[in-house]
Amino acid sequence: PGKGGIRTPLPLAATMRLLLTALLLRRAAASPDVASASRASLQSVLPSPPPPQPPRSSPRMPPPPSTELAGARSRFEAGPSLPAELASARYRFVFTKTLQPVGAVQLQEVQLFAASSAEPLQIIRAANPGGRAAPLSQGREGPEKTIDGIYGEGSNNKWLDVNMGATGNSTLELTLGEPATVASYEFYTAAHAVGRHPVSWTFWRHVGAAGGDWLLIDERADVAVPGAERPYALTAVGFPVCP
Dihedral (C-alpha) 128, 131, 134, 137: value to the nearest 10 degrees? Predict the structure, then answer.
C-alpha cells in the first residue's frame, strides 16, 4: 500500500512474471504429463540458486608416533653429548639396601650407556671387592655374570654377593674397554630370592690416574623393584645420570 492506504501498482514486468508463474504452477498440478516442462519453464523465470560451495577441508594432523618407533629412539634423544672430560674407564656401584634385609644382593645384568648410542658400552671386567659368593655356587655366580650378555626371563643367570650382611654394603666395580661418559644405566633383576634385589645404591666415576678419586654421579633410594629377570626400566633410558 502507498501513502493514505492507496495501493501502488506493480511494474508491468513484475506483474507478468507473477502471472506466468501462477499459470505454470496450475498447469503442473492439473496435468502430470506437463509437470517436467512446467518446471523447466518455471526455472527460466525464477532466479537461479547460487552455485554450491566446495567442502571445506580440515587441516590434516600428523599421526602420533608409534610405540615401536618411540622405543627404538628411546636411548638418547634427550640432549647433546656430554663433555669428553667426563669420560672414564672405571665405574662402580655401591649397593646399600635390598628389598628385604637378607644380608645378600643379586643382579642378573648391568648395562651402561653413552649419550649418543642405544647400544650398551663394552664392559671388559666386573669385580666385587670385599664380596663373597655363596659356598655352593662353584664360581657360577661371580660378578662377571653381570656383563656376560645373558639376561632376560628364563636365563637363570646372576651375580650374588652373600657378604653384604657382614660389610653393610656391596660394591660392583666395572671397567670399560675404553674411557666413555656414562649417561644412563640399567639393571636386570635375578631370579628367585626376590628379597635380594637392590633398592638403594650410589654410582661413582673414577677420576684421575691410577689411585685417583671416586666422584659420586648418581644416588638412588628405595627404588621400585620389577618382577624377576626384568629390567628396572625407571625411564625410557633406564636410570639417567647427571654427572
Answer: 20
